[in-house]
């Protein structure tokens, strides 16, 4: 039972970083912008957060640094695709490649650095409940923050006027522009907000999830987060559930190894990415379902006055 509780706890931990990044990408895509640079954003934010934690000893300042780095890079990406009308897919891939190389270069001096032991977190009284306490109530505050953020984003998108405007920009930027809304400014704000959440996810990886810096440590999680937005059909609650599902698959390999299951470690390491491919194939087989849920102007450039 202790091993199962640990599996649940580690699945929530692993799912949190995917949820944060995927929620950020959801904001982008609801505004009509596809950002394929999540992997690069998360890597740059990871080294920014880790370096800040090394020099200040504060994980919260590290999160702020990661969010700032993510927002800055996302803002540059936004200027390219929103004002200069460069191809969103090409610019996103370039951002991913840039982030990979830049983080590796900056992170050279930090590969041997170690963070000071972080405080243990637990909710009073609830953490003492057998099985449930270790499984659910001894998590980093950001795990619970991701749940609150999911609820807040769902309310924002479906219950607030600003969320309605954001969705209108993603569905029909021409109509939103005709009504007087600054479509480009709204898209840039959405891209930067999404980038800051990807940055938060990257900083979480390097300071909490695996508190160290290793080149390429995001290891495809940015791409999984991107796939999660489609998997969840662009809905926040489904993103959170999907993130926990992928987090469970990621942690399952370690659980099975700990239980002595004789399965090749290489196959177990493939499970998160294999499950991502399978899910995307299954969802993509129903094109009408995708079209019904996908923002109508996703990936399409907007030219005011055209």
UniProtKB/TrEMBL annotation:
It is a multi-pass membrane protein. It comes from the Bacteria. Pfam families: BPD_transp_2. Keywords: Cell membrane, Membrane, Transmembrane, Transmembrane helix. The keyword Chaperone does not apply. CDD domains: TM_PBP1_transp_TpRbsC_like. It is found in: Cell membrane. InterPro entries: ABC_transp_permease (IPR001851). The chain crosses the membrane at residues 6-26, 33-54, 60-84, 91-110, 141-158, 185-206, 212-232, 239-258, 270-290. PANTHER family: ABC TRANSPORTER PERMEASE PROTEIN, SUGAR ABC TRANSPORTER INTEGRAL MEMBRANE PROTEIN-RELATED. This is ABC transporter permease. It comes from Roseateles albus. The lineage of its organism: Bacteria, Pseudomonadati, Pseudomonadota, Betaproteobacteria, Burkholderiales.
């Amino acid at each position: 039972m202790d091993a199962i509780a640990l599996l649940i706890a580690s699945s929530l931990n692993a799912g949190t970083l995917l949820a944060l990044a995927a929620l950020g990408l959801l904001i982008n895509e609801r505004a009509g912008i596809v950002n394929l640079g999540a992997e690069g954003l998360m890597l740059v934010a990871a080294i920014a957060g880790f370096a800040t934690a090394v020099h200040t000893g504060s994980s919260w300042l590290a999160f702020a640094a990661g969010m700032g780095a993510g927002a800055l890079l996302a803002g540059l990406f936004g200027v390219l695709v929103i004002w200069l009308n460069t191809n969103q897919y090409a610019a996103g891939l370039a951002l991913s490649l840039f982030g990979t190389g830049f983080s590796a270069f900056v992170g050279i001096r930090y590969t041997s650095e170690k963070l000071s032991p972080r405080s243990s977190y637990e909710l009073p009284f609830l953490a003492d409940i057998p099985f449930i306490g270790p499984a659910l109530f001894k998590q980093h505050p950001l795990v619970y923050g991701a749940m609150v953020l999911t609820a807040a984003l769902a309310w924002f998108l479906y219950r607030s006027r600003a969320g309605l405007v954001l969705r209108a920009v993603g569905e029909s930027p021409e109509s939103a522009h005709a009504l007087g809304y600054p479509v480009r400014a709204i898209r840039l704000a959405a891209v930067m907000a999404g980038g800051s959440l990807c940055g938060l996810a990257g900083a979480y990886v390097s300071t909490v999830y695996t508190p160290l810096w290793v080149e390429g440590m995001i290891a495809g999680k940015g791409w999984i987060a991107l796939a999660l937005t489609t998997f969840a059909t662009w809905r926040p609650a489904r993103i959170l559930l999907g993130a926990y599902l992928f987090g469970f698959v990621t942690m399952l390999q370690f659980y099975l190894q700990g239980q002595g299951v004789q399965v090749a470690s290489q196959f177990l390491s493939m499970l998160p990415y294999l499950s991502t491919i399978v899910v995307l194939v299954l969802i993509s087989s129903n094109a009408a379902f995708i079209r019904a849920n996908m923002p109508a102007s996703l990936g399409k450039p907007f030219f005011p006055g055209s």
